[in-house]
Amino acid sequence: MPVERLLPTPEAHDLIDLTRDVADKVLAPRVVEHERNETFPDGVFPALGAAGLLSLPYPEEFGGGNQPYEVYLQVLEELGARWAAVAVAVSVHGLSCFALAAHGNDEQKNTWLPDMLGGETIGAYSLSEPQAGSDAAALTCRAQATDGGYRINGSKAWITNGGKADFYTLFARTADTGSKGISCFLVPEGTEGLSFGRPEEKMGLHAIPTTSAHYDDAFVPAERRIGAEGQGLPIAFSALDSGRLGIAAVATGLAQAALDEATTYAKERKAFGKAIIDHQGLGFVLADMAAAVDSARATYIDAARRKDAGLSYSRQASVAKLVATDAAMKVTTDAVQVLGGYGYTRDFPVERFMRDAKITQIFEGTNQIQRLVIARSLAS
């Protein structure tokens, strides 16, 4: 059964209906093939873009959907319930547009944002490095000022959409002043000197590449620096607050899909003369799964409503990311258990759900980092 959602407007209900229709027709029929073969789903993102689903939280004047985060995240959840890898890529695209939309000047926004939000391009976010994951201030990829722009040298890691994206929101060091020496750049695909490593061999999210990127004296014009020199890390962290909500929504979609699959199986499978859902021990497992899904959804919607109201939401974003991704891991694991031996096979999707759920506890800030953010907010 579709999730019964409390949405702010009739338009939002229509958007969710559209999302479900597109996801059922475009994503669901292809997910098994591409995840098993680890192949990129050509044509999927143009289809999502044509439906207006790649730019929902951004202003209409630049080609966005002008939707509140409360609605946008529930769209992501619906996508995540059908195909987590694609939903993550959509979330990362939204994250990659944030720096320009929130911190670019008028000329930059007018020049590049319409194409970025137009539905025919997809972006990537390039912050982490092999030695700088949770400690983003330790990054060493360097942008050296030169005539007309910057020369970029160094490597970046863990780039979702790497090698497939049309633009990269890059954070590189412009001064040796620690966290205050990092700047933000918008790098187009095809930039000379930019190359990508072989896609990582991952536990899950097989259809969307995660790669390293290598900058070898790559030139980026000065007008492609977003914000002032040294402003990069605050831009990155403000983007991550919204990105964490995206991952929370995708994780909730994964958990919902696992709950639905487990419930359907438990209604059909019989043991000792009755459906296994009617055995109290299993019924309680499903009840706990349902409670975890509902709790996850409530946390990300609460944070989104705060963001939409212009209130501080950094702590709530960390809470949502922590609660939703831990729930996804627990619920998908329990779904495998409910299905028993069948759950451990590829005949049913719950084993894929379980593999996909694990990464949600790691990227956009590990859940240990989320606990640190929450603890610091309590101490302040």
UniProtKB/TrEMBL annotation:
<dbReference type="InterPro" id="IPR006089">
    <property type="entry name" value="Acyl-CoA_DH_CS"/>
</dbReference>
<dbReference type="Pfam" id="PF00441">
    <property type="entry name" value="Acyl-CoA_dh_1"/>
</dbReference>
<comment type="similarity">
    <text>Belongs to the acyl-CoA dehydrogenase family.</text>
</comment>
<dbReference type="InterPro" id="IPR046373">
    <property type="entry name" value="Acyl-CoA_Oxase/DH_mid-dom_sf"/>
</dbReference>
<feature type="domain" description="Acyl-CoA dehydrogenase/oxidase C-terminal">
    <location>
        <begin position="230"/>
        <end position="378"/>
    </location>
</feature>
<dbReference type="InterPro" id="IPR006091">
    <property type="entry name" value="Acyl-CoA_Oxase/DH_mid-dom"/>
</dbReference>
<dbReference type="InterPro" id="IPR037069">
    <property type="entry name" value="AcylCoA_DH/ox_N_sf"/>
</dbReference>
<keyword id="KW-0285">Flavoprotein</keyword>
<feature type="domain" description="Acyl-CoA dehydrogenase/oxidase N-terminal">
    <location>
        <begin position="9"/>
        <end position="120"/>
    </location>
</feature>
<protein>
    <submittedName>
        <fullName>Acyl-CoA dehydrogenase family protein</fullName>
    </submittedName>
</protein>
<dbReference type="Pfam" id="PF02770">
    <property type="entry name" value="Acyl-CoA_dh_M"/>
</dbReference>
<dbReference type="Pfam" id="PF02771">
    <property type="entry name" value="Acyl-CoA_dh_N"/>
</dbReference>
<dbReference type="InterPro" id="IPR009075">
    <property type="entry name" value="AcylCo_DH/oxidase_C"/>
</dbReference>
<dbReference type="InterPro" id="IPR036250">
    <property type="entry name" value="AcylCo_DH-like_C"/>
</dbReference>
<keyword id="KW-0274">FAD</keyword>
<dbReference type="InterPro" id="IPR009100">
    <property type="entry name" value="AcylCoA_DH/oxidase_NM_dom_sf"/>
</dbReference>
<keyword id="KW-0560">Oxidoreductase</keyword>
<dbReference type="InterPro" id="IPR013786">
    <property type="entry name" value="AcylCoA_DH/ox_N"/>
</dbReference>
<feature type="domain" description="Acyl-CoA oxidase/dehydrogenase middle">
    <location>
        <begin position="124"/>
        <end position="217"/>
    </location>
</feature>
